[in-house]
Write a structure and sequence with these properties.
Layout (H helix, E strand, L loop, with lengths): L1 H29 L27 E7 L4 H5 L6 H9 L2 E7 L6 H10 L6 H5 L16 H8 L3 E7 L1 H5 L6 E5 L9 H7 L2 H6 L3 E8 L1 H9 L6 H21 L6 E6 L21 E5 L24 E4 L3 H9 L22 H23 L19 H20 L5 H20 L7 H22 L9 H16 L3 H5 L2 H23 L6 H16 L12 H6 L4 H21 L5 H26 L7 H8 L4 H25 L4 H19 L6 H15 L5 H18 L23 H12 L1 H19 L5 H26 L6 H36 L4
Parallel strand pairs: 1-5, 1-6, 2-8, 3-4, 3-5
Antiparallel strand pairs: 2-7, 6-7
Length: 860
């Protein structure tokens, strides 16, 4: 028996180690850096003259993080002064298409290089200490302006710019982009530098990157009561800068660009490819714009969702700024000069210069991919006579445009048709190269998938070394869940709507457990608990709408909770009370008065924090209790959170002491104590509207404790309900659903480790709840004499993880050229990593094993 257990444990350890290795190997092949052309672009000699001078000699580039198009252009906008500039023709508005992933670092790369960044930048975007994403060696319009020596380069705002452009700015004051709890200081730290810089005449570029609007979105969504006041604040800054441009002589030839790096969805998040996330506003402003005669109605309505005025690619910003500032287009640019600005030059020769230099620059990237022979006018191959592929058509049209350029420049050929055709060619080339698949490392993709399959085979082999025959039903049942789930990974719609699989699978599973219990008991009343369990599950499913297709559909929170906040706080306070009672009942190592004091203090601290936090985060849910708490408890929110965490830490230490040196019943009580302590932590890290999900989960756990389940029943139930609560919380397989609202509880600044842990606990609060809850069920089975229940639990959990990881890898490999590879399958792989490394290895295996040992260490 001991030998078999030792061998099974060794095989599972190897399988879990291979999971980590396979995920890393596959990721390095799936998310490689895209190659880039080094060095700065230079003006090449063209037959029809020197490059034209730019109409501007200074530029203010203002990024308002998450500036969705409707925030500026709609009737509800707070940008009234900006809208007046649009009506006067002094601001030319656009909606920029920001390609996924819609997070800051990749978007700044796109804006400054004109390229389409790699999806790996989404990962690098998280770590503020990362230096590998630097653009110091790449060609950007910032590098071109610095090379031209237009004056000093200054930057105030998001310190991502300092990471991307080290040693570039002569004056800078960076602020952390991840401290989303701050709406005000993070912007005031930018604004306070502006008056002095507007008086200075030694700079040629001033970058301003405001973060407050994005932080409001993350905390409370685009319809937050703080949103319009923040828009008015940003509009006031635009008014001040534009006013200085009109009155100060040294700012007369200044180009003022205002844009968002991305937008946001209805939840206030971003990272995916919904229309709200990919539609930031873009405006070019200057008194000189009035000469173009391009006034527009403002406010206005979108012609399609979030699409206002002209639509351009976000990468078009780079060549447009290059042309307007009179510098070469960056070498890696895929953007096209925005043709609305061509009238700044009166000569057709200048129009040819601007467009041909842009076209020849993109042509270098095209020919680096497809070869030069098709596009070379001296080649004997005629692409116009070849099969009508996109590349052949592009080469055919290029030869015609290149041959006509000199004639247009000399006035021998009408310029307007040629300009229109060239702009169309630029768009075609841009579309072709932007949609090209990444340079995957196929060897690593196959190796990573092979390692995952090997881990699955090792786990399956461990089944046959487990001595008790009844355990064989467990792997079979787990395979009936795992294989259909894995096959779903090959369909984008199923990935986007994954929650339906878990909702229906858990419904069928609970119905099976209930029917089994009814058959076992032969009591007429035995159907009550199964029906109650299924009803509870139905409430969980309806709590938050999730996925993509029905994300905005009615749910319990939108329909009942938000209009009637009292309906929220009754179950919230009930859950805090039940949890405090659990701490009191199970903290057996203290005398009754001391544990009552500890339980009440912990509950009051945690509830006070949640009431005050919600009053600031979602004031529409406040029913006045926050003011009462504030009058009693005056500590700051971070201090309040830290005190709560400290009390929970003390409780955990007492639980360890109780297990190891307390009375013989201590270990049994400790399993329940750790679950109650975690439930309090989970509530601290959850939005107030999601705390009733924990109450429903607690009721389900109570229901499961009444059933007669074997070990594999417990494991499968645990797995199903972990996924159910993740999606019930509003989670999806889109990066934009990552909730950062509680990522800074108790923290005054950015710390990647602390923020990472708190973010994980915020988004996986439900799954971890079921880990600690399942531990109480497993510990009880162990105390009743079921041997090796933890080993079998880990075996089944590992079986699911290894097979599901292999399926996800196989799907990403097979569909690597799919249209939705970067918007659906790549984010799913990142979530797969989080589930496998975070939830499975760290929580289910490591933490679960420790809690199980502490809860059973005195058994027998």
């Amino acid at each position: 028996m001991g030998y078999h257990n030792w061998l099974t444990g060794a095989l599972l350890a190897i399988a879990n180690a291979l999971i980590t290795l396979s995920l890393i190997v596959f990721a390095t092949g799936f998310f490689p850096y895209k190659p880039f052309l080094p060095g700065l672009a230079q003006y090449e000699d063209l037959a029809f003259g020197p490059p034209p001078e730019g109409p501007f000699d200074k530029i203010v580039f203002m990024v308002i993080d998450a500036l969705r198009s409707d925030f500026v252009y709609s009737e509800d906008s707070g940008f009234r002064f900006t809208q007046q500039l649009i009506r006067d023709g002094k601001a030319i508005p656009f909606t920029a298409n920001a390609r996924s992933p819609t997070v800051t670092m990749p978007k700044l790369k796109s804006i400054t290089t004109g390229s389409v960044p790699s999806f790996v930048d989404l990962i690098l975007n998280i770590d503020e200490g990362d230096k590998s994403s630097s653009l110091a060696a790449q060609d950007t319009w910032l590098a071109q302006l610095k090379s031209k020596d237009i004056g000093k380069l200054v930057m105030y705002g998001d310190d991502t710019w300092l990471k991307l452009f080290p040693d570039t700015f002569d004056r800078a004051d960076g602020t952390s982009s991840f401290f989303v709890a701050d709406f005000t200081e993070v912007d005031h730290n930018v604004t306070r530098n502006i008056p002095a810089e507007l008086d200075n005449d030694d700079w040629g570029l001033m970058v301003l990157h405001y973060l407050g609007l994005d932080h409001i979105g993350h905390k409370s969504g685009p319809r937050s009561v703080n949103m319009v006041p923040k828009q008015r604040e940003m509009d006031g800054i635009i008014r001040d800068i534009y006013g200085a441009m009109e009155t100060e002589d040294h700012l007369k030839s200044t180009l003022f660009v205002v844009c968002g790096d991305h937008g946001m969805n209805d939840a206030g998040n971003h990272g995916a490819s919904s229309p709200g996330e990919t539609s930031p506003a873009l405006l070019f402003m200057s008194p000189r714009m009035e000469s173009l005669g391009m006034s527009h109605a403002s406010p206005t309505e979108p012609h399609v969702e979030f699409a206002y005025y002209g639509e351009v690619e976000q990468s078009d910003i780079a060549p447009t700024i290059a042309g307007l500032m009179g510098v070469p287009v960056s070498k890696n640019n895929l953007g096209a000069f925005i043709p609305e600005f061509l009238p700044f030059w009166s000569s057709p020769e200048d129009h040819v210069q601007i467009l041909m230099r842009n076209a020849r620059q993109i042509l270098q990237i095209v020919t680096a991919t497809f070869g030069t022979e098709l596009f070379d006018t001296h080649s004997t191959i005629d692409p116009c006579a070849l099969e009508g592929t996109t590349v052949n058509a592009l080469a055919c049209e290029w030869r015609r445009l290149d041959a006509q350029a000199a004639m247009v420049a000399k006035g021998e050929l009408a310029s307007l048709p040629w300009v229109s055709s060239t702009i169309a060619w630029l768009r075609e080339a841009q579309g072709l190269m932007s949609s090209m698949a990444s340079n995957y490392n196929m060897l690593r993709l196959y190796l990573g998938t092979g390692l995952a399959l090997t881990a699955a085979c090792i786990t399956l082999s461990a089944v046959y070394f487990t001595p008790e025959q009844p355990c064989k039903a467990g792997p079979l049942s787990m395979l009936l869940v795992t294989v259909p789930y894995g096959l779903m990974m090959f369909a984008s719609s199923f990935v986007e709507e994954e929650h339906h699989f878990w909702y229906w699978a858990s419904t069928l599973w609970l119905a099976y457990l209930g029917s089994r219990e009814i058959r076992r008991s032969h009591q007429t009343w035995s159907f009550v608990w199964p029906v109650a369990g299924l009803t509870t599950l139905r409430l969980l499913r309806a709590w938050n709408q999730t996925g993509q297709k029905f994300a905005g559909a009615p749910d319990i929170v939108k329909t009942f909770i938000v209009p009637q906040p009292m309906l929220l706080w009754v179950p919230v306070i009930a859950m805090y009370s039940i949890t405090a009672m659990g701490i009191f009942k199970n903290l057996d190592v203290l005398p009754p008065f001391s544990r009552a004091t500890f339980a009440v203090a912990t509950m009051f601290s945690a509830l006070a924090f949640k009431l005050r936090f919600t009053a600031e985060d979602a004031p529409e849910l406040d029913i006045g209790m926050a003011n009462l708490v504030r009058s009693i408890y005056e500590a700051s929110l971070p201090a309040n959170a830290r005190f709560t965490f400290a009390l929970l830490g003390v409780g955990a230490l007492l639980g360890v002491y109780q297990s190891l040196v307390g009375n013989p019943r201590g270990a049994r009580y400790s399993a329940q104590l750790f679950h109650s302590l975690y439930a309090m932590l989970a509530m601290t890290q959850s939005r107030a509207t999601n705390i009733p999900i924990l109450l429903l989960s607690a009721f389900l756990l109570q229901h499961l404790q009444s059933l007669h389940m074997s070990g594999h029943h417990i494991t499968i139930t645990c797995l199903l309900l972990q996924f159910v609560t993740f999606f019930a919380y509003g989670g999806t397989n889109a990066v934009s659903s990552v909730d950062l609202s509680s990522a800074y509880n108790g923290i005054d600044g950015f710390n990647v480790g602390a923020v990472g842990v708190l973010t994980f606990l915020s988004n996986w609060a439900g799954p971890v709840f079921w880990t600690t809850g399942t531990n109480t069920l497993l510990a009880e089975r162990s105390r009743r004499g079921e041997r090796d229940v933890l080993l079998k639990h880990i075996m089944l959990a590992t079986l699911f993880t290894t097979i599901s990881v292999a399926f996800v890898m196989a799907a990403c490999t097979a569909l690597r050229t799919h249209l939705f590879i970067w918007t659906v399958f790549s984010p799913k792989y990142l979530y797969c990593m989080a589930w496998s490394l975070g939830q499975h290895l760290v929580i289910n295996v490591a933490l679960g094993s420790v809690l199980f040992w502490l809860g059973t260490c005195k058994s027998g």
